[in-house]
Every structure is written in C-alpha cells, then in structure tokens.
Amino acid sequence: MQQITIDAASQHLHELIEAAINGEEIIITKDEQPVIKLTPVISEKKRSPLFGSAKGLITITDDFDEPLEEFQDYM
C-alpha cells in the first residue's frame, strides 16, 4: 500500500494510475489523513491466482471422507 499526499499525487497522477491498474493500492492523503483510495474500475490485466495463495486458509478434518451417520439407511 502506497500513501501519497494530494500535492504529490497531482504531480505523479499518470504513474499512480498505472500502479493502481497493476494491482497496487494507492491511498491519497490530505493533512496526513487518508481521503481517497485509488482503484481501477476495470482491470486491464486479468491476474491469475498464485498457487499456494490460500495455504492455511482451508483445513480438512481427518474424518472428512467417513460415512455420515444420517445416511446409514441409504448405504
């Protein structure tokens, strides 16, 4: 995440727009307070997911593939 003042943003707007299009989060500040978040409306580049990016977010219990008690009558 990049934070930049309004004055600096006005001087480097083209570069900030390119950075936002490429996925960087740009926060523009006024009086040291964040006021604007620069994000693209439509992404020009479709980003592919990074392999392993969900590591640690999903867990599977040891009994995942065991038959469920509620379905014993159907087996």
Structure description:
By secondary structure, the chain is of the alpha+beta class. The protein has a domain at 1-42: YefM-like domain (YefM-like fold, 3-Layer(aba) Sandwich), CATH 3.40.1620.10. The protein has two helices and three strands; from the N terminus they run βααββ. Strands 1-2-3 form a three-stranded mixed sheet. Strand 2 and strand 3 form a beta hairpin.
CATH architectural category of the domain at 1-42: 3-Layer(aba) Sandwich
Mean pLDDT over the full residue set: 86
Q: Return the string of H and E elements.
A: EHHEE
Structural class: alpha+beta
Strand content: 15-25%
Classified in CATH, the superfamily of the domain at 1-42 is YefM-like domain
Poorly predicted runs are: none
Major sheet strand order? 1-2-3
CATH level 1 class label of the domain at 1-42: Alpha Beta
Through-space gap between termini: 54 Å
Helix percent reads 10-25%
Shape: elongated
Task: Output the CATH topology of the domain at 1-42.
Answer: YefM-like fold
Short description:
Belongs to the phD/YefM antitoxin family. The protein is an alpha+beta fold and 75 residues long.
